[in-house]
Amino acid sequence: MGAKYAQRDFANDEIVGQATIGTGKISYEAKRDRWNGFDTSAFKHVVEEWNLLNEEEKKRKTEELQEKLKLKAERKAAGHDSFEDEDSSEDNDPDIETDGQGQLPNVDESDPRKRTIVRNMRNREDTAKYLRNLDPNSAAYSGKSRTMNDNPNPNVPMSQQLFKGDNMAKFSGDFLKYLSQEAFTLESSKAGVELNHVAMPSQVEILQRQFKEKKDFLKQKKVLQLLDKYGGEKHLTMPEELRA
């Protein structure tokens, strides 16, 4: 009954076979194509609208840049060379190429892929670690982790070294404090006190400070007890003649 009123052949794809869209019978792939029967001309007005917007944007940017270059040339001709008269962003951009007279170079506008403003390509990245010393016997560089632990130029004076190795960060700053807290948690775990310097760094820091203060207090108390029992407090200070 459905085949009678729908005017379609209800059968397997192998039986129906290949057919064209005009006859109403399509292939297996065409039936599952999400863009089957889509008219590309329906999207043409959207493309044209965006092309117009892009052209207007290019014209506006070109006019703004021409106006800034013209203003800059007038200031330079008037002798205003102070920093207050200069624009700090786009006017001093070294990437913008001009023809030497404050005008933009001629660019082929027939190709929409070309930009109106021609910019130089220059490397803005820092010097790679493996380029600090090209000697193959210098510090080893790990390309996988991008690390160089040792100092590539140990013979160069410290004041002239821009990169001293990744291990330099492990011997200064808060890293030493981190190692101290880690050692404190290990000693505490041996004593039966469970601490975690990663999950609770503030608690570990407070307990470590209290432990250090108590340790210094007990040490000083023991020294005072020994001096009170055996004497010899006068020997704790160095005579003036020995200090010289």
Describe the structure.
With 244 residues, the protein is mainly α. It folds into four domains: 2-33, no CATH class; 42-124, no CATH class; 128-168, no CATH class; 174-234. Helix content is 41%, strand content 0%. The chain is built from seven helices and no strands. The protein has helices spanning 2-6, 13-16, 28-31, 44-78, 174-190, 201-230, 240-243. The radius of gyration is 39 Å and the shape is elongated. 4% of the residues are buried. Mean pLDDT is 76; it is low at 17-22, 82-91 and 116-122.
Topology:
Elements: H1 2-6, H2 13-16, H3 28-31, H4 44-78, H5 174-190, H6 201-230, H7 240-243
What would the keywords be for this entry?
single chain; 244 residues; mainly alpha; 4 domains
Helicity, in percent? 40-55%
| SSE string | HHHHHHH
Low-confidence stretches: 17-22, 82-91, 116-122
Shape by Cα distribution:
elongated
DSSP, total strands: 0
Quickly give the structural class: mainly alpha
Biggest sheet character: none
Counted by DSSP, the helix tally is 7
In short:
The chain is mainly α and 244 residues long. The protein contains seven helices and no strands.
